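So, can you check what follows?
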Amino acid sequence: MPPVWIGLTLAFASALVTNTAYSLEHDAAAALPPLSPRRPFRSVQVLMRDRRWLIAFGAESAGWLMYVAALRLAPLALVEDRAARRTHTVRSRRLRARPLRSAGSAPHR
């Protein structure tokens, strides 16, 4: 298999893993006590103690490493195209599945 195809496959897998992990990170962080930029060390401690968030962070990091590997094997324009298409698909499905709300609004029921 030519390296370009391997790179494109890695780019697709990277986008899938990264976006899924991002969603899992978001869900895990939403279940935690409020994090504050005024107390960054406490916020980091809260995140580092949460197993779900750590696993999602590790998966997101692995997705990023796959993206870097994809860039080594395929041209930037092709890798970005694969990543952008997958990102759009994952995020648009997620937005349709769960409506967003602002910090001050009540949850949708």
Summary: DSSP finds four helices and no strands in the chain. Residues 3-30 form the longest helix (28 residues). Helices lie at 3-30, 40-49, 51-73, 76-97.
